[in-house]
Amino acid sequence: AHPLALPFEGPYIDWDVIPPDVTVEYWQDVNIQLQVTAIAGIDYYWLNDTTYFSVDVFGVITNSSNLAFGTYPLEIRVYDSYGHYCTAVILISVQDNTPPEWVVAPTLQIVELAEVWTYDLDATDVSGLNVWGLNDTSRFFINSEGIISMNYMLPEGTYWLQVWVSDTVGNTLVGVFEVQVVDTQEPVWAYEPADQLLAYGNPFSYPVSAIDPSTIDYYWIDDAINFAIDGDGLIINNTILNCGVYSLEIRAYDIHGHYCIAVIEIAIVDVTVPSIDHPSDITYVEGETGHTIL
């Protein structure tokens, strides 16, 4: 050294910014830029934990593998070419404060009365989904896969459901949607009404039956002069039916005015065999007159 030069009194290497503790979300990568001043220049960087972390030649620390939840203490050193170094110990915390997200958010569900209905909810979370739940367990059920079903056949109406799913560390996602149970379908015949054949003079009686989830309200026929139908679907004749063919339209209505329809033909035939009066034998005596044969 020059004889007039003053001895160097400062540190040979030191932090420009002391590395702070770091907290990252479970799905985030660690990225720490070290800032150091070294009189003789930086030779290399050193970490005490190279299982989970690495540092490149530019002083950037990153995680070398996926980090589980928890806190990782990390000692950091930066060396100059003379072996001087500065050191710091920091804590790197990995946490999950992010709730799950809907893949598709729950939306309005319109369900036909008596329909076998299920609704598959779909959410995602980096730490994994844990528990599904809903607010109305008396009417609905949700399984561990997020599939909702009805506990029994619900009557027509509007049902509001709140559903939620938590991740493995307790963060919760909540959704609210509406289930409308409606009846837009017409009744159906339990058995299709068929044409009928009746002997003249006999009473007519023919039952028809329709089914509907909202119940059958009433039955109707288009010929109320010759026929009648009761609330159970039994058709009878109102009058003595003459021989011939009667066309009859039949309807079954539900409580919403939807109906099913059928048209049958009722044939009245005379099956009575005509009777013939045969004349009695007549004995003639020769010479007698005045006999008349009818």
What does this molecule look like?
There is one protein chain. This protein is 0% helix and 50% strand. By secondary structure, it is mainly β. It has 3 domains: 13-95, Sandwich (Immunoglobulin-like); 101-182, Sandwich (Immunoglobulin-like); 188-269, Sandwich (Immunoglobulin-like). The strands form 9 sheets. Strands 2-9-8-5 form a 4-stranded mixed β-sheet, with no helix packed on it. A 4-stranded mixed β-sheet has the order 11-18-17-14, with no helix packed on it. Strands 20-27-26-23 form a 4-stranded mixed β-sheet, with no helix packed on it. β17 (157-167) and β18 form a beta hairpin. The radius of gyration is 47 Å and the shape is rod-shaped. The relative contact order is 0.10.
Concise summary:
With 294 residues, the chain is an all-beta fold. It has no helices and 27 strands.
Q: In terms of per-residue confidence, which ranges show pLDDT below 50 for 5 or more consecutive residues?
A: none
Q: What is the CATH first-level class name of the largest domain?
A: Mainly Beta
Distance between the termini: 172 Å
Structural class: mainly beta
How many helical stretches? 0
Order of helices and strands: EEEEEEEEEEEEEEEEEEEEEEEEEEE
CATH architecture of the largest domain: Sandwich
Strand order in the sheet with the most strands? 2-9-8-5
Biggest sheet layout: 4 strands, mixed
* Tally of discrete structural domains: 3
Helix content: under 10%
Q: How would you name the CATH homologous superfamily of the largest domain?
A: Immunoglobulins
How much of the residues is beta strand, in percent?
over 45%
Summed over residues and divided by their number, the pLDDT gives a mean of 91
Q: CATH topology of the largest domain, which one?
A: Immunoglobulin-like
The value of Rg in angstroms is: 47 Å
Protein name: Cadherin domain-containing protein
Organism: marine sediment metagenome
